[in-house]
Amino acid sequence: MRNIDKAYIATGFGWLILAAGFGTWLGASAHFNFSQSHAHIGLLGFVASVLFGLVHRSWPELRDRWLATAQFAVYEIGVIILLAGKVMVDATGVPNLLLMVGAPIVILGAIMFLWLFVRVPSRSVQASVLPAE
């Protein structure tokens, strides 16, 4: 995916907007039992997604691999499932299937990114000296 860096960063800012709105609601309504869900939305959604996007921006050779697109889908779908389960846990106090399924998917997405980052050779940047004009 050629613009995976922009896709990740845009998705991250979508998560930020959701986290801010959710945080505003929980603060205004005093539903502080959802504070962990709020933190997970911010960290797994916003922070991790933006960091993945910035890494793709810094190492463009990662974008050329099919694994980059697969990793994006696995990670973001896993985050959606995990966060839905986390909100339900915060509401009921009972673990649920969404949480148990989403967590390993998110971990798999992180492992895929690590594999992509470690296994893709970096393009060597050669210094060039240009004459002064």
Give a short summary of the structure.
The chain has 133 residues and is an all-alpha fold. It has helices at 4-29, 35-58, 66-92, 97-119. It has one domain (4-119).
Features of the shown structure:
single chain; 133 residues; mainly alpha; 4 helices; elongated
Please give the share of residues in helix. over 70%
**Total count of strands:** 0
Low-confidence runs:
none
Strand residue content: under 5%
Series of secondary-structure elements, N-terminal to C-terminal: HHHH
**Any idea how many domains?**
1
Termini separation comes to: 39 Å
Q: Rounded to an integer, what's the Rg over CA atoms?
A: 18 Å
The count of helical stretches stands at 4
Which structural class is indicated by helix and strand composition? mainly alpha
Protein model, in words:
The protein is an all-alpha fold. The protein has one domain. It has helices at 4-29, 35-58, 66-92, 97-119. Helix 1 (4-29) packs antiparallel against helix 2 (35-58) and helix 2 runs antiparallel to helix 3.
Secondary structure elements and pairings:
Blueprint: H1 4-29, H2 35-58, H3 66-92, H4 97-119
Helix pairs in contact: 1-2, 2-3, 3-4
